[in-house]
Amino acid sequence: MKLTEYQEFLEYADKYFRQIRAKHSSSFQCRKGCTGCCEPDLSVLTIEATNITRYLLAHPELIVELERLEAEDPHHGSRCSFLKRDGGCGIYPVRPFVCRSHGAPIAIAREEYYQIDVCPLNFLNNPIEELEQEDFFILDQWNEELLAYHNSEDRIALRLSSLIKTATHE
Length: 170
Prior knowledge:
By secondary structure, the protein is mainly alpha-helical. It has 6 helices and 5 strands.
């Protein structure tokens, strides 16, 4: 997948998330400072790493800030290394697809059913079992599109040091 196609894919994912959130606004607790989905040790496809790295290289002041953040490790390894002390995302404009879909209901196709899930903080009074199909990120479809034009399923650790190291070897 070319970088511009990937960026369009991310824009569409954001739009889709906003549609779900608008339809079920009272069911979402997602906000800056909520870090439940900011898991450590995530990995991203190389196209995602390239997108993040290009952004970082265009913003060298951000690299300095994120290097300091990674060294300080304010969350003691329990959260994503890009999670700032205040709960904001250090790479929010270029965060990968997995981060853009967190919080919304997701569905994964199984042989005879869909396995559904959502952040345990969301949809507390609105059971996701009662939602319509368009209220879910059907991950198989989204991942298929993400991988459609990408020639490798190689993954890179979502850490500043891994991304910068990869960029210097491109």
